[in-house]
Amino acid sequence: GAGVSQSPSNKVTEKGKDVELRCDPISGHTALYWYRQSLGQGLEFLIYFQGNSAPDKSGLPSDRFSAERTGGSVSTLTIQRTQQEDSAVYLCASSFRTGGRDEQFFGPGTRLTVL
Amino acid sequence: QQQVKQSPQSLIVQKGGIPIINCAYENTAFDYFPWYQQFPGKGPALLIAIRPDVSEKKEGRFTISFNKSAKQFSLHIMDSQPGDSATYFCAAKSAGGTSYGKLTFGQGTILTVHP
User: Fold this and answer.
1) In this complex, is the C-beta atom of B43 within 8 Å of any C-beta atom belonging to chain A?
2) Which of A66, A100, B16, B88 has its CA 20 to 30 A from that of A85?
3) pLDDT one-digit tens code per residue, B43-96
């Protein structure tokens, strides 16, 4: 049906709180990615899931960040004990597969502000 | 380590001009080079992509030029229009190794096309 959806669109939280960001990928897409876009910066890879394989967590900046993907569909990115430097737009993308030149379709992002 | 370097950071042209955005990469394992267009409040959307076995690809007013030996590629926008005003990101992806699956992005170029 529709494209990649993310919720919430905006999230304001206080330093030290935990936050959960949700991503609904395009139906049928087996690969799901999380990226972070800081002000004036490019997109920074965080983590990706491909089918039932172990996720590639190589981009997670610290152990405060974690993500899961339930049932091969919806994914949740969790940031524990948020810090001000976590403020950014968190983008989710999905593709039919991970390899090859399969296009990654991006959601609109969640803008996280940590006060 | 920044693996994809993009320039300029910002670019202003008049309607009808031909803005050129340049990218350089380091990882010789990269084998897929997409360009993404992002409007404010939206996620990036694939604009055009190229493989390293061709030197040029055109789609409408958008052209990618690719120089494998120099490890550089660029985006040209012919007959630019105010509606092309957006942020443009180059990216790269590899079919294997540590960059498998995930996109590595440049820092982005903010393009403004004046009427």
Assistant:
1) yes
2) B88
3) 999 999 999 899 999 999 999 999 999 999 999 999 999 999 999 999 998 776
